Amino acid sequence: MSGTDPKRPPEGERPLARRPWTLPSAIAREFDPSRAGRKARRTVRDWIADFTCFFTAVFIGMLGADAVGDNPHVSPGWAEFDQVLGALACAAVWLRRRWPVALALVMVPVAVASDTAGGAAAVALFTLAVHRPFRYVAWIGGVSVAVVPLTFWLRPDAAMPYGVAIAFGVLLTIAVIGWGMFVRSRRELLLSLRDRAVRAENEAALRAEQAQRLAREDIAREMHDVLAHRLTLLSVHAGALEFRPDAPREEIVRAAGVIRESSHEALQDLRQVIGVLRGGESDASGRPQPTLAALDTLIAESRDADMKVVLHNRVADPESVPTALGRTAYRIAQEGLTNARKHAPGAEVTVTVTGAPGEGLTLSVRNPAPPGPVPAVPGSGQGLIGLAERASLAGGRLGHEAGADGGFHLEAWLPWAP
C-alpha cells in the first residue's frame, strides 16, 4: 500500500486550477512555451489587416514626429530619442497578434515618453480590445487614460491649452477602445450567427434522417402486414397439398389456384414496396390502398381459402370512414385473420366492426379453439407488436387475450373524429 490518498486523482488526471484574470497571469499565458505551437498561420485577410495597422501606426507616428520637432518645449536631443523610440514601437506592431496584452501594457509607458509612438500605442490598445476580454481592456485602458495628464505635463502641446489637450487625449483613447470593442462584438455576433446556422443545418439534416427512418419503419410495417397475409395462404395450402396428396382433384385445383393468386398478389405488393424504397410514390403500382370498404373483399379471399369467417359490419356507411382510419382497421383485421389461419385452422372466425363518428371505431376478431391439430407454420412473432404500434400511432388502443377454452380474442379501438 502506498501513502497516497485514494480519493486524490492521479497526477496526470488532476483538473487544472483556474488562473486568476489578473494582468500578470494573462501575460504569463501569452509567453507560455506550450502555446507557441498553437499559433495559426496568417491568412490573406490577416496580412492585409496587419499591414493596415502598421502603416496607420507609421502615419500617426510621422505626424507625431513632426509635432515633436516643432515643439519648443522639447529639446532636440529628446526629439531624436522620441523618434527612435517611435520607430521601434511601430516595428513592434507586428507582435500584436501573438502578445496583445503584453504589447498594450508596454506601450503605455512608451506612449508617455514618445509622441511618435502614439500611433503604435493606439493600434496596440485597439488590438487588445478586439482580441481580449473587457477585463484586460479595463485595466490597461484605465491606465492609459490616467497617464494622459502626465504625458502633456511632461511635454506640453504647443498649439492647445493643457486642459484641452488632456480632454482630446482622453476622448481619443476612449474612442480607440470603443472601436475595438465594437469590432469584437461584431465578430462574436457573426460567429454566433454562423454557429446558429450550422446548428440549424445539422438539426434539419437530423430531422430529415429521422423522417426517412420513420418512413422506412412504416414501409416495413406495411410490408409485414401485407405479405404475411399472402404468404400464410401459400403456406397453409402448400401444407395441405403436402399432407393430402390423395385429395380430390377439385380441391387440388382450388388450392393451386389460391397459391397462384396469392403468389401473384404477394409479388405485386413486393413490387409496390420496392418502388417506394427506390423513391417512388406509395401508389407507384397503381393499386389503391385498402380501406374499410375493402373488408368484404378480404373476407371473401379468406373464405376462398377454406376459412370459416362470419362478418358483422355494423358501420352504416363504410365508404364514409376516413381513409387513414379505414386502412388501419383493414390491416388489423387482415393480421387477425392471418393469425387465426395459422394458429386455429378450421375454427370459425368472427369479425365485428362497430362505430360512428365521434364514438370511434371498434374492430373485434374472435376465434374458438382449433378443432384439430395445428400444423407448424413459421412466424416472426412481431405481428401483434406491430398492430399495437399501428393502433397507438393512430391514437387508439389494441388488446388481445387467450381464452380459457383455447380461443383467442383481438380487439382494437380507433378514434373517429365527428
From TrEMBL:
Domain spans labelled Signal transduction histidine kinase subgroup 3 dimerisation and phosphoacceptor: 216-279
Reaction equation(s) it catalyzes: ATP + protein L-histidine = ADP + protein N-phospho-L-histidine
Keyword Hydrolase: no
Class of this enzyme: transferase
Source taxon at top rank: Bacteria
Keyword Iron: no
Alphabetical keyword list: ATP-binding, Kinase, Membrane, Nucleotide-binding, Phosphoprotein, Transferase, Transmembrane, Transmembrane helix, Two-component regulatory system
One annotated GO molecular function: protein dimerization activity
The protein's name: histidine kinase
Organism this protein belongs to: Streptomyces venezuelae
